[in-house]
Amino acid sequence: MGTTALDDTPTGRASTALNTNFPPGALSPVEIIATGPSDTPLTADAEARVNRFLTEIDGDARIDTVLPAQLNDGRMLAMAIPSVTFDSMAATDLVRDLRNTAAGAAGAEIRIGGSTAEFVDLSDEMTTKLPLVVALVLTASLVFLIAAFRSIALPLKAIAMNLLATGAALGITVAVFQWGLGENVLDFTSPGFVQVYLPTVVFALLFGLSMDYEVFLIRRIREYWDASGDNQRAVAAGLTHTARPITAAAAIMIAIFASFLTADILELKQLGLALAVAIDAVLIRLVLVPALMRLLGGWNWWLPALRFRPPNTRAPRAAAE
């Protein structure tokens, strides 16, 4: 976690002294809670198995020391001090390995907690829910765009272009902050990962911002199409009248988000770079979208007609006498 901006504060000085004179994991030890099934007291055999588990993990190179366990009402609490920083990939791997090992302790339920464990659980939860978020956003966008553009091809194209823009922004952010490309230029040290919330936040923000550009451009093209019926002329005229406003709006947002890169907090740098990427406004909205609309021609404006046959309201023929 990049918090160099806090180095001169009391909290920052305390953290520096702690990291300098004590194991890196002392800032956030791994909490180990052992109980019997359904939070019942441990039996003598189960307690022995828990002690063997603690002895086993004490030999792990990623653990500096395991503090003496405390026993209270048949339940055991122990603290393991990692030899790695609590927000590193090695620490998250340690928590996952401890949980896998703890699952084999018969007769005891061993739970692994602490700050790193919270990060692991949060990461798993957000990773699991991300496909649902993406599906909901795409479905809602498709429905609204079909209603707004009265077309099938344009909404599908808009969603594909927005996904391309989001994927490009996240890919560049991963290359810079996870792989460490450009560390010296942006003045940071790569932790080897990006923040877990970044894909969800960047997808939601970029998708919304990209859709603004898309609607602005396509609505103007639609106006010229309705007036002339000439797709090539409508695309050219719509692009001519919206290029400047789109470029100006994109330049303002790029300047705002790029200012995050000057922060000493790594999370802000990652978010700023992901949102400041100009691929969407420059390459996609002003090059790819018009080019695809030119190639699609009349298919841009195709929408299947929904024809409903009215019910037969004619009175039945009178029965013959």
UniProtKB/TrEMBL annotation:
<keyword id="KW-0472">Membrane</keyword>
<feature type="transmembrane region" description="Helical">
    <location>
        <begin position="246"/>
        <end position="266"/>
    </location>
</feature>
<feature type="domain" description="Membrane transport protein MMPL">
    <location>
        <begin position="7"/>
        <end position="303"/>
    </location>
</feature>
<feature type="transmembrane region" description="Helical">
    <location>
        <begin position="130"/>
        <end position="149"/>
    </location>
</feature>
<dbReference type="InterPro" id="IPR004869">
    <property type="entry name" value="MMPL_dom"/>
</dbReference>
<feature type="transmembrane region" description="Helical">
    <location>
        <begin position="272"/>
        <end position="293"/>
    </location>
</feature>
<dbReference type="InterPro" id="IPR050545">
    <property type="entry name" value="Mycobact_MmpL"/>
</dbReference>
<keyword id="KW-0812">Transmembrane</keyword>
<feature type="compositionally biased region" description="Polar residues">
    <location>
        <begin position="12"/>
        <end position="21"/>
    </location>
</feature>
<feature type="transmembrane region" description="Helical">
    <location>
        <begin position="161"/>
        <end position="181"/>
    </location>
</feature>
<keyword id="KW-1133">Transmembrane helix</keyword>
<feature type="transmembrane region" description="Helical">
    <location>
        <begin position="193"/>
        <end position="213"/>
    </location>
</feature>
<feature type="region of interest" description="Disordered">
    <location>
        <begin position="1"/>
        <end position="21"/>
    </location>
</feature>
<protein>
    <recommendedName>
        <fullName>Membrane transport protein MMPL domain-containing protein</fullName>
    </recommendedName>
</protein>
<dbReference type="Pfam" id="PF03176">
    <property type="entry name" value="MMPL"/>
</dbReference>
<keyword id="KW-1003">Cell membrane</keyword>
